[in-house]
Specification:
single chain; about 290 residues; binds S-adenosylmethionine
Length: about 290
């Protein structure tokens, strides 16, 4: 059952000296709340967040499925439009940092339409294999047309399922990655634990996710863009304002880079490091099993 209480809107946000023009919307959670969010998503609690909305944990996966069903056919186009194409650069940088080797086996968790998987397939070559793992069939189908050669068909396989329970043996993969997906997983820590489990010892994990811009003025512009312009474009092009309001909300609920690093270390990853992209709009975490 969904609860109407919204503990996020209590104005206890990080201060940056810039007056929050969209106070009711652009809420970057303060540290204690983000911590709580990690604890909640680690499976101990009954509740989870869908954007700013607090909901029963067991209903989150269904809501996320619905959300991606409604955006799947527009997903790639909207990604490129809303990010001015920058997401392609971020993805290329992320794959370069993973330093994949020919012949590697790679798991793309929450792989969706397969952008990261396609880049990884190039890096691992003919003898390598990339598995796109996603809970939503419509998202994977929306990317089928990009697997458009015999070579790619051989290299890329699709498996449908939940990131919290990955149907592969321990130590099966050389690398595991998740791009803009872990935010949606009900128990985020469980998702990372599963990625850790299916990696070989010494295997690499990469997480590419949105975060909070560092410079206050840029962050203000980003907040205005996220809460005013993006939902408007979402309404006009995809006929779905709500879906494009959920996106900025879920980004503001996500742990900060240091907090995510701490979670990864707690799970058992070592050499955890991160790199901020475009003033921190996106962050790449790298870690070793
Ligand atoms: C924002 S898309 C990212 C797609 C792709 N990785 C990219 O970078 O473009 C998030 C994806 O995560 C998937 N997803 C959400 N929750 C999931 C879960 N619990 N298990 C597996 N996939 C999930 C969604 O279906 C969606 O395809």
């Amino acid at each position: 059952m969904e609860s109407n209480t919204n503990p996020v809107f209590d104005n206890s946000v990080d201060g940056d000296g810039i007056a929050p023009m969209f106070e009711q919307k652009a809420v970057w959670l303060e540290k204690q709340k983000r911590k709580k969010q990690i604890e909640e998503t680690s499976g101990v609690e009954r509740d989870a967040y869908f954007g700013y909305q607090r909901i029963a944990a067991e209903s989150k996966t269904g809501r996320v499925l619905q959300h991606f069903n409604s955006v799947a056919r527009y997903y790639d186009f909207m990604n490129t439009l809303l990010s001015f194409g920058i997401h392609h650069l971020w993805k290329r940088t992320a794959i370069r940092m993973l330093d994949l080797l020919p012949g590697d086996r790679v798991l793309d968790v929450c792989g969706g339409t397969g952008d990261l998987a396609l880049l990884a397939a190039r890096a691992v070559g003919d003898t390598g294999r990339v598995t796109i793992y996603d809970i939503n069939r419509a998202m994977m189908e929306a990317g089928f047309h990009k697997v458009n050669s015999r070579a790619l068909e051989k290299q890329i396989q699709y498996v449908q399922g939940n990131a919290e329970s990955i149907p592969f043996a321990d130590g099966f993969f050389d690398s595991a990655m998740v791009g803009f997906g872990i935010r949606n997983v009900t128990r985020m820590a469980k998702g990372f634990e599963e990625m850790h489990r299916v990696l070989k010892p010494g295997g690499k994990m990469m997480c590419l996710e949105f975060s909070k811009p560092t410079a206050p003025l840029f962050r203000w512009l980003y907040d205005v863009y996220s809460f005013q312009i993006m939902p408007f474009i979402g309404q006009v092009i995809a006929g779905n304002r709500k879906a494009y309001m959920h996106l900025p909300e879920s980004i503001r609920m996500f742990p900060m880079p240091d907090e995510l690093s701490a979670l990864l270390k707690k799970i058992g990853f070592s050499r955890v490091d991160y790199r901020k992209l475009t003033n921190g709009i996106a962050v790449i975490h790298l870690a070793i099993k």
